[in-house]
Write a structure and sequence with these properties.
By secondary structure, the protein is an alpha/beta fold. The chain has 2 domains: 182 residues, 3-Layer(aba) Sandwich (Rossmann fold); 105 residues, K homology (KH) domain (GMP Synthetase, Chain A, domain 3), CATH 3.30.300. A 6-stranded mixed β-sheet has the order 4-5-3-6-7-8, sandwiched between helices. A 3-stranded mixed β-sheet has the order 9-10-11. A hairpin with a 2-residue loop joins strand 4 and strand 5. Helix 6 runs antiparallel to helix 8. The protein is globular and about 55 Å long. The two termini are 20 Å apart. 44% of the residues are buried.
Amino acid sequence: MSGGADLPVAGHESDGIATRSGFIALAGRPNVGKSTLTNALVGSKVAIVSDKPQTTRRAIRAVAGGPDWQLVLVDLPGVQRPRDALTERMQRRVESEVDEADGCLMVVNAEQGVGPGDRFIAAQLRGARVPIVIAVNKVDRIDRARTAAVLKAADDLGIAESIFPISARRGEGVAPLLEHLVSLLPRGPFYFDPRQRSDQTESALLAELVREQVLIRTREEVPHAVEVEIAEIEEHDGRFRVEAVVLVETESQKGILIGSGGRMIKAIGTGARRAIERELGGHVHLALQVRVRRHWRADERVLDRLGIE
């Protein structure tokens, strides 16, 4: 696998047992549940979750593993037709990660059924040189007859060697899907320390936890215009101080995020602080600032600084 050449290798064997490892790229329309599925496969939270498109902006490498295998999931941004510098970068990352993976898992939303967006993605994947598996997610929200119809529609896409009905939220069908994905991995060394669950830096993960709270509480254009940077993390005797900057593109968006009497930013901060405390395992003082950076999604320098490749 060429895409893993720059990653740390933890060893070829585990206690004398030959190991297998590799990369599985996750593709799918925005909001089909890829991040929820990633968390379910890994067994811990490594990707933020919301019902908003563009929740995932970076290709997150999440690590699931056993005694003799390590599966690195690349939770890609939702595949869509590019419309600005941000979505162009997201689309390029999707294409490169699929090309370099050992397999591809396409996720379909059972509740919405197979639509034009899924067929667009299937056309993009049809020339892939790796095995493609389809997970039909959210089957817990529909009846058996509709499930059967969506499974057939997924099969009719003509790209998958296997199709799995699952509920990532409830964990239903996740175990057999994981077992099949592991079977696709080639023999080789672990790319990450077995205790590691993601390639995200601490600051990147904390920034995402703040952005998740914004996504939960805002609507319309605001979620798409928000990005978060961690300015500082300090730790003293198990207590943490975290300074975060929330970027928006207009003064009106800033006003929405602050809210009447500061109620919105206080609610975002409370939710984010609790999530960060669960991650860091200690008391957290979170300081939030909201700043306007006009047209940041079209600013290549800002995207570089934010690590959106």
